[in-house]
Amino acid sequence: MKAQxxxxxxxxxxxxxxxxxxxVHQLSRxxxxxxxxxxxxWKEGIIPGIKLGYRTLRFNLATVLSVLDxxxxxxxxxxxxxVGTEAQEA
Length: 90
Known about the structure:
Number of helices: 4
Radius of gyration: 17 Å
Strand content: under 5%
Shape: globular
Number of domains: 1
């Protein structure tokens, strides 16, 4: 039985990344999520990635962070609107 690896515990030096593409595991460490979560976000089309071969997937850190930032900004007003609606009804 294989031991489970802790990917989040190993920090990645962002300065060393530069303009290079990140692997699934590197991006997962930056985002603080499990690699399966990163793959699921890519498969669902939430974050952009580049498929280079059968098993090779790479991500541009700046692009992924930009997309996640835009997504966060789009979701915030909806949550506030729901809270405001509930407050008016009460």
